[in-house]
Amino acid sequence: MKLLFVSVALALTGCTITTGTAPAPTSGQPRQEVRTVSNTTATRNFRAVVRRVEPVAEQVCRERGNNRNCDFRIIIDPNTRLAPNAYQTLDRNGRPVIGFTQSLIAQARNQDELAFILGHEAGHHIKRHIPRSQRSAVTGAILGGLAGGIFGGDAGAEVGQRFGGTVGARRYSKEFELQADDMGTRIAHRAGYNPVRGARYFNRIPEPGNGFLASHPPNADRIAQVRRTAAKIR
User: What is the residue-wise DSSP string for 1-33?
Assistant: First the structure.
């Protein structure tokens, strides 16, 4: 039985804070318009946030001492057609990379929202969520492959590996998101921003769903996490 390389896919994907699009209206309801800021304002806000938040995130990363590389590389995806999204991943040298789509930057209504999102993604690296997800995915793939092989031979083993890897990768994903929200709150606050105001972004995005393989907690839970953390650090 060969083990699928689920860890490689995870290393390339990292963790996302997917915002999606407004849900389709029901019959008789007008479609909700997505408000964006001007290109000039979006660029100014993003540059200001990166300038203030990046050094704080790197300092927190070094203080925690869990990572060899705390030199964040922050990028804007050049593809203008991508949906609003931000993600954290690692390059081939292990350097942490945080990416933003242009549509997300345009839809952030203020610097507090951008600062919280940037802090959130940095929090994933600081808490070492990628390697922890990789280990869980590999374990799930092994166990799933063994179970599938017992009942379905080689074909069953392969299906079991894929399913087990997916379940393993998402085993702690909701917990990881809340941990990153906690860390993002602390980073944004230390950089001089208001994370509670920044977390209002969750009020404008669709619910992620709460199915068996859902990777993100409900938006209300995330807002509550930010408020709890902010109350502790004031």
Answer: -PPP-HHHHHHHH-EE-----PPPPPTT-PPPP
Q: Which residues pair with 83 in a beta bridge?
A: none
Secondary structure element (H or E) that encloses residue 218, with its range: none
pLDDT in tens, 87-114: 998 899 999 999 999 999 999 999 999 9
pLDDT tens-place string over residues 168-207: 334 447 888 999 999 999 999 999 999 999 999 999 988 8
3-state secondary structure at position 90: strand
Spatial CB neighbours of 57, under 8 Å, sequence gap ≥ 6:
72, 118, 119, 122, 126, 187
- Write down the pTM of the prediction: 0.73
Q: Count CA atoms within 13 Å of residue 222 on its CB side.
A: 30
